């Protein structure tokens, strides 16, 4: 019978991480500094830096795993966390959708067709759950999860993300190090870990880059600083984009 780490053992590993690991913030800023010097258009600079910063977050996760001597038990096709509420800024949503627009035509068209079906299927439920005040309602996450509405980018036939490489920070920093069945049996298992604090390094570098572009008077499709401070549920941002693309 396979044995898994206990909650107490995971907490001990996390304490080890806190005591011995330091994030190299400078490598996040080196990404945007390099793209600032590239001889290419602003839109490509934004998209490339956005995607490289996301990759750095995933790389940081792997290094932390090595420090703790643990490996996530999350398995391909496991999508329980894809029913969680994901809240992102308008700036991040714009970067995600611009990246999707640059996907190969067949992949982009597949996502568009999927979203059409998604909003037809879940429209009424989405209106209800995305109207919850995520800042004031302390139980909004559990209520959202119990509605059983998947992420708009989840292919529920394969349980795979249709835009995996540009998935937001909450998606890539939530992991399970113990029995994977816990996620099936609990809405919000206490044993799972979120490294969402990595958002600080990612957004700090991204914000500095867009601020630099703003001072240069060219931020492409980003309305800075308004897009940075406007937050909403990911399904709401994607719905607006999908409707605009379908016109």
TrEMBL record:
The record ties this protein, via InterPro entries, to: Puta_zinc/iron-chelating_dom
Q: Which domain of life is it from?
A: Bacteria
Q: Supply the name of the protein.
A: Putative zinc-or iron-chelating domain-containing protein
């Amino acid at each position: 019978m396979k044995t898994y780490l206990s909650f107490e053992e995971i907490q001990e590993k996390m304490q080890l991480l806190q005591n011995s690991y330091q994030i190299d913030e400078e490598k996040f800023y080196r990404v945007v500094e390099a793209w600032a010097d590239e001889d290419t258009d602003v839109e490509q600079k934004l998209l490339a830096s956005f995607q490289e910063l996301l990759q750095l977050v995933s790389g940081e996760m792997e290094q932390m795993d090595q420090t703790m001597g643990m490996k996530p038990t999350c398995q391909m096709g496991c999508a329980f966390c894809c029913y969680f509420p994901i809240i992102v800024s308008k700036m991040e949503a714009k970067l995600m959708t611009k990246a999707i627009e640059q996907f190969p035509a067949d992949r982009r068209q597949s996502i568009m067709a999927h979203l059409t079906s998604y909003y037809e299927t879940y429209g009424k439920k989405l209106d209800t759950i995305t109207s919850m005040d995520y800042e004031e309602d302390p139980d909004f996450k559990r209520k959202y999860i119990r509605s059983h509405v998947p992420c708009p980018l989840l292919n529920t036939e394969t349980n795979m993300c249709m835009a995996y490489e540009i998935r937001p920070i909450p998606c890539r920093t939530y992991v399970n190090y113990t029995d994977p069945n816990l996620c099936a049996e609990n809405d919000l298992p206490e044993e799972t870990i979120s490294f969402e604090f990595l958002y600080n390094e990612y957004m700090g570098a991204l914000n500095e880059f867009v601020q630099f572009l703003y001072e240069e008077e060219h931020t492409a499709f980003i309305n800075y600083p308004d897009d940075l401070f406007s937050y909403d549920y990911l399904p709401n941002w994607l719905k607006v984009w999908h409707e605009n693309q379908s016109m």
